[in-house]
Amino acid sequence: MIMKPTPLRIDPRNRLLSLDALRGFDMFWITGGEALAIVIAQLTGWGWLEQQMHHVKWDGFHCYDFIFPLFMFISGIAIPYAIESKLEKNIPKRRIVRKVFLRFVILVVLGILYNGAFQNGFSNARIASVLGQIGFGYFFASVIVIFTRNSYVRLTWLGGILIFVALMQLAFPVPGFGAGVLTPEGCVNGYFDRMFLPGRLYREIFDPEGLLCNISAIGITLMGTFAGNILRRKHDSDWKKIGWLSGIGAILIIVALVINPWYPVIKSCWTTTFNLLAGGIGFLLIALFFLLVDHWKCKKWTFYFRVIGMNSIFVYLFTRIVDVDKISEFFTGWFSKLFSGPASQLVTVVGAMAVIWLLLYYMYKKEIFIRI
After folding, report:
1. CA torsion angle for 103, 107, 109, 113 (degrees, to 10)?
2. How far is CA 362 from CA 8, 225, 305, in A?
3. Surface-to-core class of residue 176, CB atoms within 10 Å of its CB (0-12 exposed, 13-18 middle, 19+ buried)
4. Considering only CA atoms, which of 7, 21, 12 is closest in space to residue 296?
5. Residues 23-44: tens digit of each pLDDT
6. How many CA atoms lie within 13 A of 35 on its CB side?
7. Would the CA dihedral through 247, 248, 252, 258 be positive or negative?
8. What is the distance in angstroms between the CA of the first residue and the CA of the last residue of the chain?
9. pLDDT tens across 294-338, in order?
């Protein structure tokens, strides 16, 4: 579906540019930022930087583990602008639910496409996906927002989801392992995925976008809706909004770190502690971007990111389907051969990032924004 974007606004005159910038900043790492950081780390000997650009093997947290949940948090921020504004205009709830459900279905199908089912066949296709989980979280968070106008009721839903996931992971007796065994083999996530999730599992014994992960991820999307509601308050000052966002973010991070020794942060099975930590960082990041972009009006530096963020789903699929590195090598190969090792790779990475950004810039100038 192609259309001009509907501006996300704090009021009718001011676009919430901080949200566009943060979305683009998040997608930047998928569109070459991660590869660029790794090459820089190899050139400088900064091993810590390269380490942060890879997922942890199981428990723990690296910066790269935050890219996916941040996008879900951002989609949650957009819900009050996209949905509550419609409710205020008395648009029927049934029509809104139908639209978000259609978005969910499209994202599931695109996720299956991303996983290569159309290339490799459907007999052993992987059904679970990043895009499917985004759609799942967005749909159920939206339904909660549509049918519960009271913030306390929504907070009850959020608490219920986080507690339910924690209880399942800590108290459900997995056959052959018992309860509370948070390993790839023993976690309840993998048990449910092997029992009920159709198709191939990404890690064979569990899927990081599996059934319980999807339920848990509704939590971080709901957290985003609270951030969106704070930003949307018309009568609060910017500093009050920043204070609320920063305070909530700090509390969530502290709670996650305190609980971590007994209930570890694990992205692969999306523990409640992972939700709290990622959500807390999300609150702090949107507070920072809102302060810089919408309050202090430091906007020029965000243009690069906003161009990426305006077509986030498109660029996510584009970099999966199209081998951008080969395009870069076609144009920059002569130059990269002047160097060796990481320096040669740096030329290819920068060239690939330029190809992606120039395509997105062309779409931006032509007002081609692919929305689902």
Report:
1. 150
2. 22, 32, 14
3. exposed
4. 21
5. 999 999 999 999 999 999 999 9
6. 19
7. positive
8. 6
9. 999 999 999 999 999 999 999 999 999 999 999 999 999 999 999
Tell me if 44 sits within 8 A of 322, measured CB to CB: no
> CA angle, corner 101, sides to 188 and 153, nearest 5?
70
CB-based contact 70:282 (threshold 8 Å) = yes
Question: Average pLDDT of 347-357?
Answer: 97
Sign of CA dihedral 9, 15, 19, 23: positive
Give me the half-sphere count of Cα atoms (radius 13 Å) on the Cβ side of residue 108: 14
Query: Model confidence over 140-158: pLDDT tens digits?
Result: 999 999 999 889 999 999 9
3 state SS for the chain = CEECCCCCEEECCEECHHHHHHHHHHHHHHHHHHHHHHHHHHHHCCHHHHHHCCCCCCECCCHHHHHHHHHHHHHHHHHHHHHHHHHHCCCCHHHHHHHHHHHHHHHHHHHHHHCCHHHHCCCCCECCCHHHHHHHHHHHHHHHHHHCCCHHHHHHHHHHHHHHHHHHHHHCCECCCECCCCCCCCCHHHHHHHHHCCECCCCCCCCCCCHHHHHHHHHHHHHHHHHHHHHHCCCCCHHHHHHHHHHHHHHHHHHHHHHCCCCCCECCCCCHHHHHHHHHHHHHHHHHHHHHHHHCCCCHHHHHHHHHHCCHHHHHHHHHHCCHHHHHHHHHHHHHCCCCCHHHHHHHHHHHHHHHHHHHHHHHHCCCEECC
Tallying the residues shown for the chain, one arrives at 372
Cβ neighbors of 44 (< 8 A, separation 6 or more) are none
And the tokens for 3?
């259309």
Number of Cβ within a 10 Å radius of residue 11: 9
Confidence class for position 173, pLDDT limits 50, 70, 90: very high
The C-alpha atoms of residue 344 and residue 355 are separated, in whole angstroms, by 17
The domains of the chain are located at: 66-296
> pTM for this structure?
0.94
